[in-house]
Amino acid sequence: MSTKVPGGTVHTLPADLRNELTSDEAVLALWQDITPLARNEFICWVEDAKQDTTRERRIRRTREELEEGKRRPCCWPGCSHRERNGT
Fold first, then answer.
1. pLDDT exceeds cutoff 50 at 1
2. Amino acid 66: pLDDT
3. CB 79 within 8 A of CB 11
4. HSE-up of residue 68 (Cα within 13 Å, Cβ side)
5. Mean pLDDT, residues 13-31 taken together
6. d(CA 5, CA 11)
7. Is the Cβ–Cβ distance between 72 and 46 less than 8 Å?
8. Region at 84 (left for phi over 0; alpha for psi -120 to 50; beta for the rest)
9. DSSP string, 2-69
10. Which pTM value belongs to this model?
């Protein structure tokens, strides 16, 4: 699929998360509807996983949380890579 899928403000969208998002048009639409900052939070949360099993679970939960109407990862303190000015 050649659909352009937006990333975050600091983080680019990793291939494994992109594959999950593009596997369902409704989930992709939900992803595109959240802000770049919110997308950044999900991406950082996924990339912060230390183990492959945790990363896979976070990718799956990203999809589930979007489907539940959440616009940020649950229980995530936020991306530590953003500058203090909010970008």
1. no
2. 97
3. yes
4. 10
5. 96
6. 13
7. no
8. alpha
9. -------SSSPPPHHHHHHHHT-HHHHHHHHHS-HHHHHHHHHHHHT-SSHHHHHHHHHHHHHHHHTT
10. 0.87
- Asked if residue 9 lies in contact with residue 36, where contact means CB atoms within 8 angstroms, the answer is yes
Measuring CA to CA, which residue among 55, 66, 1, 65 is closest to residue 27?
66
Tokens of 73: 């990862």
Which token pair is 12?
Answer: 């680019």
Residue 24 is encoded by which pair of tokens? Answer: 């369902």
Q: For residue 37, which phi and psi values (nearest 5 degrees)?
A: -65, -40
Residue pLDDT, tens place only, 25-82: 999 999 999 999 999 999 999 999 999 999 999 999 999 999 999 999 887 788 887 6
Structure tokens at 83: 């500058």
Tell me the residue type at 20.
E
